[in-house]
Amino acid sequence: MTRYRVAVHIVPRKGILDPQGRTVADALHALGFGAVHDVHVGRHLVLELDGDTEAAASASVRTMCDKLLANPVTEDYEIAGVTVA
Amino acid sequence: MKFGIVTFPGSNCDDDAYFAVTDALGAQAVRLWHKDHDLQGVDVVVLPGGFSYGDYLRAGAIARFSPIMREVIEHARRGAPVLGICNGFQIACEAHLLPGALLRNASLRFVSDMVTLRVENAATRFTNRYAPGQHLRIPVAHGDGRFTIDATGLQRLQDNGQVVFRYVDASGRFTEDANPNAAMDHIAGIINEGGNVLGMMPHPERAVDALLGSNDGLALFESMLATVAA
Question: What ipTM goes with this model?
Answer without folding.
Answer: 0.88
